[in-house]
Amino acid sequence: MLTSTDTVPLSGPLDAAALRRAAHPLTVTVDEEARARVARGRRLFHALRHGPGGADRRIYGADTGFGALVGYAGRTDDADQCDNTLAHLGAGQGPDLAPEIVRAALLLRTRSLAQGLSGVSAEVVDRLAAMFATTFAPAVPRYGSVGASGDLIPLAYATQALRGRGHAYLDGDRMPAGEALTAAGLRPLVLDGRDALALVNGTSVTTAATALALDSVRAAHRSLTALSCLLTDLLGCDTGFLDADLLRAYGHPGAVDVGGRMRLALAGGAPSGTRPLQEPYSIRCAPQLLGAAEDALRHVDGVVAADLGGISDNPLFFPGTGPDAGLGTGPDAGLGTGTGTEGAGEGKVVHGGNFFGQPAAFAADLLASVTAQLGNLAERQLDLLVDPARNGGLPPMLATEPGAQHGLQGVQLATTAFVAEIRRAATPAGMQSLPTNLHNQDVVPFGTQAALRAHDMAELLGLLCGSLALGLRQAAHVGARRPTAPRCGELLDALADAIPPVDPDRPLDSDVRTAARLLVRYARP
């Protein structure tokens, strides 16, 4: 049953929470202001195409070929031009993207089109909005986008599914898209060339995957901050490394803020007095590492917010405000040729590159670097915890009876594999440009690859956090002291309530996932 929290308006920018909710049925509302914007944009598109001077004015995708073939005429029939847009983009390969990424991408696409600058029909926006009240999700192959003219190939598959072609998911089951539409009570989309091009010519898959990855890494960052405090308290470490004056002298705002959160979490605690003067870096430098991650994540926050609030399409249609509006007075004013701007008094059509996913590519690459170092921290903290030479004398591998039992040995092996996989995937994608499309796309950002890879890495980071949390829970069972800071005690109690001690040995894969899910809930801001 839908509730008020399952409603997303298209009147303003989206956020990661809305994208998360799009994985399940929700109400997407199109208010009267949005309807007016879309109708105005559609009227402008028709006026520029069919009004005075329209016969001499080219509008990309409406009556032209696509990409490198823009210099050739497209198909004259609107329905044929829609097919002309989509058919040749059916070249994706590989496994399907997760339906939650596809639905998040379509929510972003709907919001972008609802701003009224794409010239699409109102029916497109309304029918897209209606889809979200169901569990319908197009089946979209992972590989094929370079993120340059937007996510052309994956969005073409999504659009075709909405037309009843290809495949889709309904209630998690994969089936022919036409059957899924019928079962969901949806009618196939009917599109012209402008509608079809607007649906594919944006970075919605890239932006959605980046935003979802950022949300997950943010949760892991909060979790690792809390787990670092619990580790510090369980081992009885001196907390001088969190001194406020010390961190202010460091000069980085992220470290100051993280250090403040850690001091709050450790408030009321007391060191044991038995630890070394200086802890290993995985404890002593945690505020500097987590603080640097915080500073980097704030940059990614800004990029994602801009992408969620922006309009990604080409061309765009800007309405005028007067008899000469849209023409301007500068050197590029008026109808002009070769400037990318062609218009009439009622507005203008502008051809450009707002579908170029470079900002998200750089942001996702930075997110990957942050993820890799956070993963290193979690793995090193777990390694410290299972090592009797550094964990204050707790048994090796936190086993209740070493040799007869093996405690966290398998989990620690798995974390090593997770870190290796994250490191392998962390190679930047956003600067690995390859020319394509007869050099029409002679520089490409590969934002889609960067974003999807960051999304995969974020999932592994969550499992690393869950592994560390399981180790901390087991450490308390095999002899670590009870946390002295109340907040740390609350976290340990939550873990102990959810996960029984490892005594005797058992498979721990599900326990790691349980701990990871608990941390996401516990660490919400």
What this model shows, in words?
By secondary structure, the protein is mainly alpha-helical. The protein contains 18 helices and ten strands. The strands form four sheets. The chain has a three-stranded antiparallel beta sheet with strand order 4-6-7. A three-stranded antiparallel beta sheet has the order 8-10-9, with helices on one face. The longest helix is centred in the middle third of the chain and has 32 residues. About 3% of the residues have low confidence.
Q: Which series of helices and strands comes N to C?
A: EHEHHEHHEEHEEHHHHHHHEEEHHHHH
Tally of alpha and pi helices? 18
Strand order of the largest sheet: 4-6-7
What is the approximate shape? Answer: elongated
Portion of residues within helices: 40-55%
Low-confidence stretches: 323-340
Q: What is the terminal separation in angstroms?
A: 27 Å
Range of strand content: 5-15%
Total beta-strand segments: 10
Q: Sketch the major β-sheet.
A: 3 strands, antiparallel
Q: Cα-atom Rg, whole angstroms?
A: 27 Å
Overall pLDDT confidence: 91
Structural class: mainly alpha
Main traits of this protein?
525 residues, mainly alpha, 3-stranded antiparallel sheet, 18 helices, 51% helix, elongated
Topology:
Layout: E1 7-9, H1 16-21, E2 27-29, H2 32-50, H3 78-86, E3 93-96, H4 99-113, H5 122-131, E4 137-138, E5 141-143, H6 152-162, E6 167-170, E7 173-176, H7 177-184, H8 193-200, H9 204-235, H10 244-250, H11 253-265, H12 281-284, H13 286-309, E8 316-319, E9 341-344, E10 347-350, H14 358-386, H15 409-425, H16 447-477, H17 486-498, H18 509-522
Parallel strand pairs: 1-2
Antiparallel strand pairs: 3-5, 4-6, 6-7, 8-10, 9-10
